[in-house]
Amino acid sequence: MDTNQRFVMKCGGSTLAALPQAFFAELRALQERGTRPVIVHGGGPAISETLTRLGIESGFVGGLRVTTEAVLDVVEMVLAGRINKEIVRKIGQSGARALGLSGVDGGLIAARPVANADEIGYVGEVTAVNAEIIEGIMAMQYIPVIAPLGIDQAGQRYNINADTAAGAVASHLGVERMIVVTDVPGILKEEGGERRVLETVTVAQIEEMIASGDIYGGMIPKVRAAVQCIQGQVREVVIVSGTEPGVLTRALDAGGVGTRIVRA
Ligand SMILES: Nc1ncnc2c1ncn2[C@@H]1O[C@H](COP(=O)(O)OP(=O)(O)O)[C@@H](O)[C@H]1O
Ligand SMILES: CC(=O)N[C@@H](CCC(=O)OP(=O)(O)O)C(=O)O
């Protein structure tokens, strides 16, 4: 397989419901031309809604969900169940084939507790990704759709931020590109009283923008994951809105869409 043709795409929970059928049709067209997408998805808003409905309290520390055993049950149910299957169904409707799994299946995503686990509970960071499983699914002409949970050797499951999980999958697979699909057209910066999309940003500019507060909230784990994976084999990470026409093809080929994060 030509590894240049593989890419990882992270679909954020902020935008999943808004992704038009044209987005999935484009995904099918890409697969037909020999490109091999790997999808890692989020679902933060759906988890929060379900927790509220069930009357389970939770909060966030540093952008990560405080994850008790009860929260973990809901995270797994929503991400590996409802959201994962919704994406698989939509891809199926477009005429392509998808196979959904979570990072727990086959030990796909090995994880360990994050450093501040005493504060935020069962939140994991990725220690390894079993690329063979993903490659096997791609070899069968299915698009892998991965829910961001992880597991350790003792069988403990963890909740992993979806941007972090996607970055780790991209690094371990050795793809050249990661596309992050979210609800904004890229990284925005206020200039002359106007907020505009930055075409390209470097690692150094990202650090400045976090320090100045220009990048905040949900954008922080995205740029952090991007910075981490472009230290390795990944050449660039593109942050885009999923509702722009032809967004995937433009992100992969022509350019002129979203924000490209590059080494320097
Ligand atoms: N500089 C920035 N440019 C664009 N969006 C930003 C920026 N800083 C913070 N954000 C916020 O990040 C959000 C995207 O992150 P998030 O809501 O976690 O989405 P997702 O569910 O796709 O991961 C945007 O909707 C916006 O509110
Ligand atoms: C540890 C942690 O915070 N996990 C996230 C996993 C889902 C996610 O990241 O979804 P988005 O991409 O839609 O934000 C959570 O529980 O919300």
Automatic annotation (TrEMBL):
<keyword id="KW-0028">Amino-acid biosynthesis</keyword>
<feature type="domain" description="Aspartate/glutamate/uridylate kinase">
    <location>
        <begin position="6"/>
        <end position="241"/>
    </location>
</feature>
<dbReference type="InterPro" id="IPR001057">
    <property type="entry name" value="Glu/AcGlu_kinase"/>
</dbReference>
<protein>
    <recommendedName>
        <fullName>Acetylglutamate kinase</fullName>
        <ecNumber>2.7.2.8</ecNumber>
    </recommendedName>
</protein>
<dbReference type="InterPro" id="IPR036393">
    <property type="entry name" value="AceGlu_kinase-like_sf"/>
</dbReference>
<comment type="similarity">
    <text>Belongs to the acetylglutamate kinase family. ArgB subfamily.</text>
</comment>
<feature type="binding site">
    <location>
        <begin position="43"/>
        <end position="44"/>
    </location>
    <ligand>
        <name>substrate</name>
    </ligand>
</feature>
<dbReference type="InterPro" id="IPR004662">
    <property type="entry name" value="AcgluKinase_fam"/>
</dbReference>
<keyword id="KW-0808">Transferase</keyword>
<dbReference type="GO" id="GO:0005737">
    <property type="term" value="C:cytoplasm"/>
</dbReference>
<feature type="binding site">
    <location>
        <position position="65"/>
    </location>
    <ligand>
        <name>substrate</name>
    </ligand>
</feature>
<dbReference type="GO" id="GO:0005524">
    <property type="term" value="F:ATP binding"/>
</dbReference>
<dbReference type="GO" id="GO:0042450">
    <property type="term" value="P:L-arginine biosynthetic process via ornithine"/>
</dbReference>
<dbReference type="GO" id="GO:0003991">
    <property type="term" value="F:acetylglutamate kinase activity"/>
</dbReference>
<comment type="pathway">
    <text>Amino-acid biosynthesis; L-arginine biosynthesis; N(2)-acetyl-L-ornithine from L-glutamate: step 2/4.</text>
</comment>
<keyword id="KW-0067">ATP-binding</keyword>
<keyword id="KW-0418">Kinase</keyword>
<dbReference type="InterPro" id="IPR001048">
    <property type="entry name" value="Asp/Glu/Uridylate_kinase"/>
</dbReference>
<feature type="site" description="Transition state stabilizer">
    <location>
        <position position="222"/>
    </location>
</feature>
<keyword id="KW-0055">Arginine biosynthesis</keyword>
<keyword id="KW-0547">Nucleotide-binding</keyword>
<keyword id="KW-0963">Cytoplasm</keyword>
<dbReference type="InterPro" id="IPR037528">
    <property type="entry name" value="ArgB"/>
</dbReference>
<dbReference type="Pfam" id="PF00696">
    <property type="entry name" value="AA_kinase"/>
</dbReference>
<feature type="binding site">
    <location>
        <position position="159"/>
    </location>
    <ligand>
        <name>substrate</name>
    </ligand>
</feature>
<feature type="site" description="Transition state stabilizer">
    <location>
        <position position="10"/>
    </location>
</feature>
<comment type="function">
    <text>Catalyzes the ATP-dependent phosphorylation of N-acetyl-L-glutamate.</text>
</comment>
